[in-house]
## 1
Amino acid sequence: MSEVKLEDIVSLCKRRGFIYPGSDIYGGEAGLYDFGPYGVELLNNLKRSWWRANVYDKDNYVGLDSAMFKHPKVWEASGHVGGFNDPLAECKNCHHRIRVDKELGAISVTADEKMSEEEINRLFDENRAHIKCPVCGHKDFTDVKGFNLLVKSNLGDFTGTGERPVYLPGEACQGIYLNFKNVVDTTPSKIPFGIAQIGKAFRNEISPRNFLFRTREFEQADTQYFVKPHENKEAYDRIKQDRWNWYLSIGIQEKNLRWHQHENLVFYASDAWDIEYDYPTLGFDELEGIHDRTDYDLSQHMKFSGVDLQYQDPATNEKYIPWILETSVGLGRMFLAVISDAYYVENIGEGQTRTVLKLKPELAPVKVAVSPLLKNKPELVAKAREVYDMLKKEFGAVMWDDNGNIGKRYRRQDEIGTPYCVVIDFDSLEGETKDTVTVRNRDTTEQVRMPVAELTDYIAK
Ligand code: ATP
């Protein structure tokens, strides 16, 4: 397990404007977080990288952005109304609710939300002696019941009867299935092809916890790849490898990733693997699911909507319901993995340490910070402003930083993960060194002096 603690990551995220607890001034709200100024930059950079890899770098994938609210029947067809349940038990002493499969997992008893109520009650009964209420410590719980995770809204319900509940999305991917026919009819896409989407999901998680790992609102980045029935195997292996390689390409260390194959498959799935990440404090757990879903999704929507969702091969006129290979990752878990992986505490001599986020420069929320050596010297500030304006035009994500002494600024930028700090000092103003600046490298902490005219190229490289 990683030596970094989850609490260190949470603290850095708050301290440096990456993640704030949701509704912070009201004392927070369980399972909700806000992305701060540097968090949203990192999040957007991750989304861009994911989109590039899954849409632009492929020649048979297209993108989509479907509405969050959907016809209520969508969630009946998908199985979420009937079966999107987590096993819940309530402490008889303090009424705290636990998610039983996760509590069993914590004492190394294999259980998951797909088990029948009977099966999980049996496991729970066998292990009750070892499960304590995390709030009051009592061991007396109710029997296990399935708790539906869908979040209802009253959209369009002007009578207040709640007869036609419109749900928030329990998963983002349903929009892709609903638009399969639209995409086939309006784009050159021919099977095999994929649709990619980043969208919000909401789940009434029984015990949201572990920071961004389990929240009640989150974003998912999904791809659904449509293939001819039984022509799934080769594509599935390739997709699995692609997703693994993408994590390496964004700088995740391979030692912190591993594969986990599901033993307990849902009845329609042909295969299911997770990419797991070694999260600080939590250890290895799910980052992304890669599932071979056969024709279940389109068959269900065909049945419930009455619309023919079969694909007709333009070359052979053969008609069939395509099989689907899905990849789905929560952006919050991706964010947590990337920050944790880049987090280092280094000795810098004299008993001092620095915390640094060694993010890949393309992911870094701030590409370069610009500082006048002293903020009360107008001539330094004016020159630094010139450099700042020039770099901001080029890179956008540039930060003006004149707060505290230079050492403090470097510490701050290291924690934000800024690859370069540019300092304008008195030598920048006159003599042989006029129009030169110092550039400090985040990872090596080395400083070089260079002409302002060469800065943009140097940083871009
Ligand atoms: P878990 O078993 O951890 O509850 P899951 O198997 O239900 O997750 P999926 O429904 O397959 O998850 O969702 C796909 C991805 O969405 C997951 O791999 C994960 O990255 C992310 N995800 C799911 N639930 C949450 C959540 N409550 N908070 C943050 N991310 C989530």
## 2
Amino acid sequence: MANVVVVGAQWGDEGKGKLVDWLSERADVVCRFQGGHNAGHTLVIDGEVFKLNALPSGVVRGGKLSVIGNGVVLDPWHLVAEIAAIRKQGVEISPETLMIAENTPLILPYHGELDRAREAQASVAKIGTTGRGIGPAYEDKVGRRVIRVADLADPATLELRVDRALVHHNALRAGLGLDAIDKAALIASLNEIAPEILQYAQPVWKVLNEQRRAGKRILFEGAQGALLDIDFGTYPFVTSSNVIAGQAATGTGIGPGAIDFVLGIVKAYTTRVGEGPFPTELFDDDGQRLGERGREFGTVTGRQRRCGWFDAVLVRQTCLTSGVNGIALTKLDVLDGFETLKICTGYELDGAVLDYLPTAADQQARVRPVYETLEGWNQSTEGARSWAELPAEAIKYVRRVEELIGCPVALLSTSPEREDTILVTDPFAD
Ligand code: IMP
């Protein structure tokens, strides 16, 4: 049986939510393996809109097991509120359908405060984070002072963990002019939320390996995009987790051999939220048009996304770092009506042409895109369900994308509705 990893192949917001929902119909288990509630996954099911941050997209489909893996950082209060909101929309969530890894690190209120305080410091270049405490929580995990789900079960352990965290955080907060943390209040609120979270706590690594052995199909749902990866992204303008497909193994406790297919989600143009280099960014009417037609506003922060032409150099690179077997190309319809379209095929830097994005930050900021121009199309591609419904120029565009990135299209998504999808290769096929 096939297990599939879905990753964003650009800077996030590629339309993963819909594709994960589409694939989850074929899966038995849907599993988050990195990130936290900085993600915003929008699903449209029979016209109803579901907005998810921390919960795996599988929760909205009945009969699936949804799993939050240890690679995630989890804000327990946000999760409880998200569960309540989704339940109000008629979705059933119980310990039978949702599991949280016992070794998942928790995002606590001081992580968010630290995130926002740092971003507010005018003296340091802003990252443009979501302000949700993601980075500080991952720092604490690596610094061996984070509080994990399992710690909530034992008051003595919890107090020890809190003491350890506060030594660090209170020193830091004093330097930033923030009040010291009220230990008693923090412990009281953790004790209050503990039963809500502990009812879902499981040794996820064990459950997933058992599911795998039983022949169940597991879908690993990535958040953000490969260019926000802590190692391979546009550092330091990245998120604080590994986003690329290899993280599906370490972020859940299943061996890398369990991954049979990596699906890269790729938008037919490029967007980015937050600061950092973006070689094909447009500041003209074309950019404005992409943003308006594509409704490019962040689902978490409401920020306007920066828009630009398709960058084949970046996607070729992310397809390699994630070992992508096939891509799902999304939002092709946003390109409808452009007279001509541009695709970036290389970068010019100091008189040379590069076929990859250099690592050094100053070079990333200085590369100039080399474009090739393709003919646009006038007909609408929105809602197309077969190749026959696409204009010849749109097919040419897709074929050129495949050629340049060195990876085939497995799925083509032509609207937010799940049925508006053209299937070329089923990632779950044996
Ligand atoms: P953080 O993940 O909140 O620390 O933010 C770090 C960077 O990642 C910022 O540029 C954010 O805009 C970006 N980011 C985080 N989550 C997402 C996402 O789900 N989609 C797109 N960008 C994201």
